[in-house]
């Protein structure tokens, strides 16, 4: 079955910015042919700025509606596709490390992209913020269009910093649960990202945070409504699904890379989480009109 599926699936491309081009600002039109508009796995930061209530964005297998002045925040490693991007959308993409040149700017990027929180992957900007964001985006786009040799990338970096700060200043308060209150939850999520393939027990993460397993579970349950083990399983499943849909790896290879010595055990684990086998999920996604 693995061999058959490998022949059927074409991997979704990993899109990179060109060498020497750390940033792009794009005005999207419905007939535009651009790799950033195709299903892809990110190797960069991206803001998708919707200017009307048309279209959708699918980020890590969850679909969200476009809303006027909603800016989707997509981080490196995430899977992004859109059956209909919308006719009035702007994209701002930049490579990791371009803006994060010091602790303050690194924290700014982490705040906007909610890398360690449970916030939905978008920010709704109030109308009061648009007169600030519009000219900043245009200046970024115009400077980037000067080309690699003439563009002042230091100026672009400063403009992006301004854009992100104004975006946070004029972000509407989210009505959805997910605002992080305990910094240890963010630290836990970061630790899980680093170690989930080899460390799948709560005790490991509790010791890293100088807490008992019981206390860490209490904190996480209050913040996320889940146990530490459930967060670890969620991260494993996210990576498994990314690989099943957007790579030609065999299920055995995926299992081994995720730290499962026995591929059969991985399949049982997967079925328990998804109520279907990895092969069934892969086949369903191949047949999906969305993918």
From TrEMBL:
- Please give the Pfam families that the UniProt record associates with this protein: HTH_18
Q: Among its keywords, does the record have Glycosyltransferase? A: no
Pinpoint the HTH araC/xylS-type domain residues.
186-284
Q: Which branch of life, at top level?
A: Bacteria
Q: Which InterPro entries match?
A: Homeodomain-like_sf, HTH-like, HTH_AraC, Tscrpt_reg_AraC-type_HTH
Q: Which UniProt keywords apply?
A: DNA-binding, Transcription, Transcription regulation
PANTHER family, per this entry? ARAC-FAMILY TRANSCRIPTIONAL REGULATOR (PTHR43280), TRANSCRIPTIONAL REGULATORY PROTEIN (PTHR43280:SF32)
Q: Can you name this protein?
A: AraC family transcriptional regulator
Q: Which organism is it from?
A: Vibrio hyugaensis
């Amino acid at each position: 079955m693995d061999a058959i599926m490998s022949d059927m699936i074409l991997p979704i491309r990993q899109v990179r910015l060109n060498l020497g081009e750390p940033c792009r600002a794009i005005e999207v039109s419905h007939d535009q042919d651009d790799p950033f508009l195709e299903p892809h796995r990110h190797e960069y930061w991206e803001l998708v700025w919707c200017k009307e209530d048309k279209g959708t964005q699918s980020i890590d297998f969850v679909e969200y509606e476009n809303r006027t002045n909603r800016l989707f925040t997509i981080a490196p490693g995430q899977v992004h596709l859109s059956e209909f991007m919308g006719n009035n959308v702007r994209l701002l993409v930049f490579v990791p490390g371009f803006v994060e040149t010091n602790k303050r700017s690194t924290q700014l990027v982490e705040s906007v992209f909610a890398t360690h929180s449970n916030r939905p992957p978008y920010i709704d900007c109030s109308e009061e913020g648009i007169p600030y964001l519009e000219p900043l985006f245009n200046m970024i786009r115009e400077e980037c269009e000067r080309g690699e040799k003439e563009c002042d990338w230091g100026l672009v970096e400063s403009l992006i910093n301004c854009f992100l700060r104004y975006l946070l200043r004029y972000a509407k308060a989210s009505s959805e649960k997910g605002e992080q209150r305990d910094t240890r939850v963010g630290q836990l999520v970061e630790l899980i990202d680093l170690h989930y393939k080899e460390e799948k027990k709560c005790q490991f993460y509790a010791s890293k945070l100088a807490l008992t397993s019981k206390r860490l579970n209490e904190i996480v349950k209050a913040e996320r409504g889940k146990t530490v083990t459930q967060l670890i399983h969620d991260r494993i499943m996210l990576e498994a699904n990314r690989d099943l849909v957007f790579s030609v790896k065999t299920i055995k290879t995926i299992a081994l890379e995720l730290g499962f010595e026995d591929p059969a055990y991985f399949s049982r684990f997967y079925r328990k989480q998804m109520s279907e086998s990895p092969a069934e999920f892969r086949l369903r996604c191949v047949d999906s009109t969305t993918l």
